[in-house]
Each structure stands twice: as C-alpha cells, then as structure tokens.
Amino acid sequence: MNASVQKQSGNQVTVDWMPNGLPEFDLSMMPSWSCSHDLVKRFQEDGAVLMRGVFRDWVKPLRRGLQRNLDAPNDYAFPCESIPAGKSGRFFDSYCNWLLIPEYFEYVTQSSAASMAGQLMEAQAAQFFHEHTFCKEPGTQRETPWHQDLPYYCVDGNQTVSLYVALDQTPANVAVRFVKGSHRWGKLYHPVAFEDGADFAAQGECLESVQDIQPSEHQILNWELASGDCIAFNFRTVHGTKSDKVTRRRRAFSTRWLGDDVVYCERNIETSPPLGDMGLRLGDRMREDWFPVLWRRSWYTDAKKKAWDDSLVDHRLQF
Ligand SMILES: O=C(O)CCC(=O)C(=O)O
C-alpha cells in the first residue's frame, strides 16, 4: 500500500472477523430465485432496482442479529458511530460479522440472496464479499453522504451488487437515493467519511470528488420502503440520503456480492475491510476460501436435468 494511506473511522479493529478458514456449510437450504429478464435489464441499465417484499421472511431474524450488533458494538467487527456523543440520534454501522452473528450467517447461506445476486450481475457465479448493517435511530439528522462503494474496497470490476434489505418502514425522504445510471459513468469518486461527508483520500489515485456531483442535474431513484423490500445496486452506483430528520428507527442489512470480472486491487487508502496480506497479486480473483462462492449458474441449469436431491451434493461446499 502507498505511504499516504489514511485510516477511516469505520475500520476500528475490535474483534477478529476472519477466523482461520470458513466453517463447513450446507447450501442445500438455499432457494433459487427466479429473476425476470426485465428486472436484470433495468438493474444493468439503471444501476439500482427495487424488489418489493422479497426478504419479508428474513426481517425478524435480521433485526435480532442487528440488535446484537447495536447492543455490544465492540463485540463485533468494525463498529462505526457517525454521530458524536452528546448529539441527538445515532447513526451506526458495522460490517464483516456474518461469521459472528448466527442470524446473518443463516441469511447469507440460506436465503435466495446469492441466487438473486448472481442473476442480477449476469454472472456465472456469485462470490460473497461481506455484509454491512446500518441503523439510524429516531432523532438522527445526518445524511449518508453521496458515495460509491467500490472505491472503499480492495476489488475492482463491473459485475457487482449490494442487496440492501430494509428492516423498517422507511419514508422516501430518509431512504437511500441513487443516481440513476451513475455506475456507467466510468468514474470513481474519492471515498468520504460518513461523519462529515469530507473526502478522506485527498491524494493518490486519480479519483474525482463526489462533492462535484449536482444531484439536481441527474435522475434520482428514491423509493419509500417497507420492511423486507430490497434494493439491488451496483458498487459503482452513486448513492446517499438527504439530511432530513429520522423520526422512526431506520434499520437496513446489506450483503455485497462479486461477479465473474471482479479481481483484487490495491487502493491509496485503507480499504474496507482492511485486509492484510491475502497472498494475492493485483488482478487475482478474491480467495474463495475467505470469500465463498455461494451460487453458480451451472448448479441450476444442471438441476433442470436432475432431480433436486441428486444435485444436493453440488450445493455443499467443503472447506
Ligand atoms: O443506509 C444508509 O444510509 C447507507 C447505505 C449504504 O451506503 C450502503 O449500503 O452502501
């Protein structure tokens, strides 16, 4: 990494989030999700699509999981409070806890998220990167600054998706907004600090400043959300919220997925997550023993020919 690396506040190291090897897990409970051609086309064109109610059944378990995170932030990985003590409200986020919080683990390995991700990315396989949770408590008056997710990560590529599940009814004025089509601008913007929206990597990579985006010049995608609704968006899609006051709890759970063209890269900042030496060279695929492939298109095309039971063996990953 470059000498001008700067630390970002969301990377406070508390616990070891990456145990030695992944547990053995069974993907046979993972349902396949049938994605319409029209939805995939809209996702590819707009960079963000809303799917109503698709994770309704997961709202309660995910809320339980998030509560563990909120109650004991330092028992989990990368807790971040973006509202200073003494100020009204709380804007909390935390990520890389899917191996530590059983409800998150179940969602990642037993929901249709992997299948949804693979199909939306038009990929042959969906590789799991990590999960990220957010909570704005009532009284919080803090925007989520405009940003793209990709410049925070040690990966590069186009086939990416975050599946952002609303865990509360969320009015449009405090929900995340997306700049339609911005994933296709061919631009990367400086990551910003969630505390104050400032660019935190001012030098190094030739990134543009997100501060230069004039939202009024672009078409904004913004929806009122019900719990269980899911927004799928590309890591390059510019997104953020207004600074309207949150009057009801606003929780969300995101999973991040990598498609076929995504490879390891290095950036001029400490990435999220801050990964040590993974034994990778620039341009390598991310290690599958750390970031598992949880869906392959071939499993389902084969499954058309075989009975589901016969194909179970293909659905079990051994580590
Ligand atoms: O919920 C929010 O305010 C931020 C969500 C976000 O930035 C993300 O999922 O990448």
Short description:
By secondary structure, the protein is α+β, with helices and mostly antiparallel strands.
Element layout with pairings:
Elements: E1 25-26, H1 37-46, E2 48-51, H2 59-71, E3 80-81, E4 91-95, H3 102-110, H4 113-120, E5 125-136, E6 155-156, E7 160-166, E8 177-179, E9 220-222, E10 230-233, E11 239-240, E12 250-258, E13 263-264, E14 293-296, H5 297-305, H6 308-315, E15 316-317
Antiparallel strand pairs: 1-15, 2-10, 3-4, 4-5, 5-12, 5-14, 6-13, 7-10, 7-12, 8-9, 8-11
The protein binds 2-oxoglutaric acid (AKG).
Number of discrete domains: 1
- Count of separate DSSP helical elements: 6
Ligands in the model, by name, code or SMILES, are: 2-oxoglutaric acid
Average predicted confidence as pLDDT: 87
Structural class: alpha+beta
In the CATH hierarchy, the third-tier topology is known as Jelly Rolls
N- to C-terminal distance: 30 Å
Strand content: 15-25%
CATH architecture: Sandwich
> Can you tell me the CATH superfamily?
q2cbj1_9rhob like domain
Task: Report on the architecture of this protein.
- This protein has a single domain, classed as Sandwich (Jelly Rolls).
- The strands form four sheets. Strands 2, 3, 4, 5, 7, 10, 12 and 14 form an eight-stranded antiparallel beta sheet that branches. The protein has a three-stranded antiparallel beta sheet with strand order 9-8-11, with no helix packed on it.
- Helices cover 18% and strands 20% of the residues.
- Mean pLDDT is 87; it is low at 1-7 and 304-319.
- It is α+β, with helices and mostly antiparallel strands.
- The longest helix is centred in the N-terminal third of the chain and has 13 residues, at 59-71.
- Bound molecules: 2-oxoglutaric acid (AKG).
